[in-house]
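Private note to self, pasted from the team thread so I don't lose it. Backbone tokens:
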């Protein structure tokens, strides 16, 4: 694990040589910066004294892997100048404050671009930089609620369900920020001009539903949850409880996969129900009864090696041990922490987990040396980190 004064190993991924400044926050911003770091960028996280208030031991915050950390108090007299020194030498800066906060702190786009016109300035928010709600607080669940994406998840007779903060914060937020930053970085290298990337979770989450909106317009999607092909309304696309209280996931959409699914369940007489919506209730009941007759592991063996598109629903601790994921190295162990390996994969510029989570302020001297900025006077990273 990274220790005080130990610089992160140089990145060997496709973003090797790219310098990124991350103004510390929580949620999608750190995840976006982690992705850039995983891809080989030299990411310097500017932590605030006392930490971001996430409530997790920094030594276990995997979203800060492959990064380096300095502690800067932006409210101190020299704080903004120290961040601007970094921005002057960076390719990308990421911040996740409410609109106008970075400007008031003296590190907004105008101040940064005055020092570095080529800088890509990435802004991560829930509501965006403008609009009636731009200044309001919020979290993942509220953002996806307004976009319609929350309302389409879950069973029709139950409250909407959502997968932790993966849909809003990370899919609709962090990943869109990274796409925007990389596109703007390409533009900056071609034109010499940086720009601001406004990544709003509401925009990204809405964008994720593009195909569904097309199906809705075409009459192929009902505007209510649990009534459609991909939202649990279809009996051969969903989850079923097994005898031991676990679950199996079924995705036997196409005809040949559906036929294999029924054969392995011993329900071949239900073949006509594939396209007969009037029989979907019967189909669901009989499939559910069959799955309840055996345990998850027994059903896993039944469907193993087939094209029935059925898989066991695994827990977070179980997933790394699945034979396929283990063979691919989808998860990795680093410094005693099991975590997802960097993704995607590259043939010429492979990525890796180079270091554990950056500890607040641990890399102050190394960053000053490597980036050619003045070292802070009497800066004690352990004291600064609180």
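Design output:
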């Amino acid at each position: 694990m990274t220790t005080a004064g130990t610089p992160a190993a140089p990145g060997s991924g496709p973003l090797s040589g790219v310098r990124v400044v991350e103004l510390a926050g929580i949620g999608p911003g750190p995840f976006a910066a982690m992705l850039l770091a995983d891809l080989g960028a030299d990411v310097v996280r500017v932590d605030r004294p006392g930490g971001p208030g996430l409530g997790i031991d920094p030594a276990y915050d995997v979203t800060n892997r492959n990064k380096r950390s300095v502690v800067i108090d932006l409210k101190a007299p020299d704080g903004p100048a120290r961040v601007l020194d970094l921005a002057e030498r960076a390719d990308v800066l990421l911040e996740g404050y409410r609109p106008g906060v970075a400007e008031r702190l003296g590190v907004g786009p105008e101040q940064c671009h005055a020092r570095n016109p080529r800088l890509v300035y990435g802004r991560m928010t829930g509501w965006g930089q403008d609009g009636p709600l731009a200044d309001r607080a919020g979290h993942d669940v509220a953002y996806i609620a307004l976009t319609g994406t929350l309302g389409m998840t879950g069973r029709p007779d139950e409250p909407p369900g959502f997968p932790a903060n993966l849909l809003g914060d990370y899919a609709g937020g962090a990943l869109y920020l990274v796409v925007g930053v990389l596109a703007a970085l390409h533009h900056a290298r071609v034109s010499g001009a940086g720009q601001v990337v406004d990544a709003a979770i509401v925009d990204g989450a809405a964008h994720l539903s593009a195909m569904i909106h097309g199906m809705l317009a075409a009459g192929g999607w009902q505007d209510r949850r649990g009534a459609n092909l991909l939202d649990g309304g279809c009996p051969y696309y969903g989850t079923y409880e097994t005898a031991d209280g676990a679950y199996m996931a079924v995705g036997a959409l196409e005809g040949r996969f559906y036929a294999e699914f029924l054969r392995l369940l011993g329900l071949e007489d239900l073949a006509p129900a594939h396209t007969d919506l009037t029989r979907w209730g019967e189909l669901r009941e009989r499939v559910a009864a069959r799955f309840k007759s055996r345990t998850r592991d027994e059903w896993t063996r039944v469907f193993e090696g087939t094209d029935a598109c059925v898989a066991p629903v695994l827990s977070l601790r179980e997933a790394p041990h699945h034979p396929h994921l283990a063979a691919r190295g989808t998860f990795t162990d680093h410094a005693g922490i099991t975590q997802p390996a960097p993704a995607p994969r590259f043939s010429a510029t492979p990525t890796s987990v180079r270091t554990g989570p950056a500890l607040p302020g641990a890399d102050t001297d190394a960053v000053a040396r490597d980036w050619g900025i003045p070292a802070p006077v009497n800066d004690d990273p352990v004291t600064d980190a609180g």
